[in-house]
Known about the structure:
By secondary structure, the chain is of the alpha+beta class. It has one domain (5-147). The chain is built from three helices and seven strands; from the N terminus they run H-H-E-E-E-E-E-E-E-H. The protein has helices at 5-43, 45-49, 136-147; strands spanning 54-64, 68-79, 82-90, 99-104, 107-113, 121-125, 130-133. A hairpin with a 3-residue loop joins strand 1 and strand 2. The chain is elongated.
Amino acid sequence: MNISTEKFLSFLRREKEEKEKWVDVKAKWVDALCLLYSKIKEWLKDAVEDGLLEVTDKTVELVEDELGPYQAPGIVIRFGEKDIEFRPGGRFVLGARGRVDIRSDKGVVSLLHDSSKIQGWSLFDAGTMEQKVFDQESCLALFEELLS
C-alpha cells in the first residue's frame, strides 16, 4: 500500500474533525436532557417540598453508532410505591433530535426533542401518531394519569 504522507495527514485531520463534531452533538444532547429534567423538577418543586413525591437523579449507559458509548442523565419520580422513570432512548431518532422514554407500570410514553421549536419537547402518542407540546400542564396531567 503506497500512501503519501500528505494524504495520510489529510485523512487524520478529517477523522479528528468528525470525532470533534460528534463530541459536540453528544454534549448538546446531554445539555438538552439536563434542561428538561430541571424544568420537571421545578414543576414538581411544591410536591417534593410537601413530601408527596421524591425525585432522584440517575445515570443511564447508552451506546449509539455515531456517538459510541456514553452516560446520559435520567430521573425517577416516586410516589409511594409507584415510579415514573425518565430514561433517554437516544439522540438519533427518526423525525426528532432525541427521545426520552417515560416508563411506569402503565406502560411507556415517549418525549421527542426538537430544538427548533420553542418548547423543544413534545409528547408522542405512538397509537395515534400525534404529538403535543410537553409543558407544565401536559406534564402534570401525564403524571396524574400515570400515578392513578
